[in-house]
Amino acid sequence: MKITKICCIGAGYVGGPTMAVIAQKCPHIQVKVVDLNAERIAAWNDEDLNNIPIYEPGLDAIVGEARGRNLFFSTEVEKAIDEAQIIFISVNTPTKTYGKGKGMAADLKYIELCARQIAKIAKDDKIVVEKSTLPVRTAEAIKSILDNTGNGVQFQILSNPEFLAEGTAVSDLLNPDRILIGGDTTAEGQEAIQTLVDVYANWVPTDKILTTNVWSSELSKLTANAFLAQRISSINAMSELCEKTGADVNEVAKAIGMDSRIGPKFLKASVGFGGSCFQKDILNLVYIAKSYGLNEVADYWEQVIIMNDHQKRRFSSNIVQTLYNTVSDKKITFLGWAFKKDTNDTRESAAIYVADDLINENAKIAVYDPKVSRKKILADLDYLESRKAEDNANAILSFEDPYEASKGAHAIAVLTEWDEFVQYDWQRIYDSMQKPAFVFDGRNILNRAEMESIGFVYQAIGS
Ligand code: UDX
Ligand code: ADP
User: Fold this and answer.
1) How far is the CA of 323 from the centre of ligand 2 (A)?
2) Is there a catalytic annotation at residue 277?
3) d(Cα 377, Cα 396) in Å, to the nearest integer?
4) Are 69 and 29 within 8 A, CB to CB?
5) pTM value?
6) Tell me: the pLDDT tens digits for 114-171?
7) Closest Cα to residue 194, out of 204, 203, 183, 205?
8) Catalytic residue among 8, 26, 242, 277
């Protein structure tokens, strides 16, 4: 089948950048990204490319090139479904907050709504691609809905998990380690796989495009994220031991990373991993394992999450303990709120949990993040439902300038590894703070010798 029209349901962190790159690399294909959220679509269509809703280095230029040529953002979901030959489903699949599997299983209600909408509208054969992070066997559910409620047209369901990391989404999409496409083993399934392979082959070398059955593809996504998160929890576990024994976790990480069997990546000790994927995917894995009665498998992976929660808690209790066991009415400045640098995404960011703990201790938190708004910070805290919204609003001071944020502070906590933090005039920050001035470096980005020579009491993770 020659593809001329693609649609993507969901204009978020996955759908937006992925479709922008497909449109840039395939000018002969019309790519429509649709979303129910009119405000988000309006932001994608904003003339000023600084206002597109997702911050990713390089994304503005790609949107600028393709938008209006063959890339379109719209709220007309039904029209886009009707026209497209391939439909990507890229809606959110948060962890369930109610009922069976609460706090663990993925909530598939948005996916199901999409499937029902596609079934209702489609008047000709379509390829439906699941692009959201989904638990294993979701494709089967989508297929069942489509086949039982559709207008008798043929659907092929493909799994095409996204491996892009936020902050590097554009380069990950332009230059992926691999593209994974799972489909039915039938002739029709294989034909659908080939159709999607041909789209990616416009810029990805074919030896990097892997095809598998649907279940392998879905499970590979969860497995990749579980392995990556496990490395971080493993190094974070060692960080606590290093602090007790006088070893330096950065040195340990370097030493083990030079073993080519281990490799150097994802060994950076930190205040804990965040982001929309790791925790959610592992909890899904745990839930799936439990549902098959595989309790040891479930416990094994759950420990990665337990370790991560411990790391965040440990960071906040260390701040309290070091500040003479009380932070009541003390000003603690957070540098960073995003879950990692180069993104405005804050989902599951360690900063949220550290702030929550410190607010429980009556601290005032002054936040500076180059890309995160006060509105989002308060929404993140309100989502935890630990206290009334007005109490969060009173406890959080937010600043557009890091020097203002640090004035009069008792301590600074680095929660995100933004490059600019290293470049600051730390002497000026020191001079404006209460003494002794503490720095808790949750990302190990600052230089201990320099910080101590200025006069800071400097604490890093794992040394
Ligand atoms: C992850 C996967 O990398 C990606 O392939 C998948 O598609 C989605 O989930 P993402 O969550 O965007 O991507 O970011 P990632 O770079 O993996 O970082 C996740 C978290 O781990 C961040 O909070 C980061 O700061 C933390 N991290 C990462 C560490 O603490 N130490 C490290 O060594 C690496
Ligand atoms: P991700 O990180 O997976 O991309 P986001 O939450 O950033 O997740 O984006 C998912 C988007 O999907 C949201 O903008 C949401 O409004 C949109 N969405 C959810 N359900 C539907 C639906 N049925 N039709 C259209 N858009 C939807």
Assistant:
1) 42
2) yes
3) 8
4) no
5) 0.96
6) 999 999 999 999 999 999 777 778 888 899 999 888 888 999 999 999 999 999 999 9
7) 183
8) 277
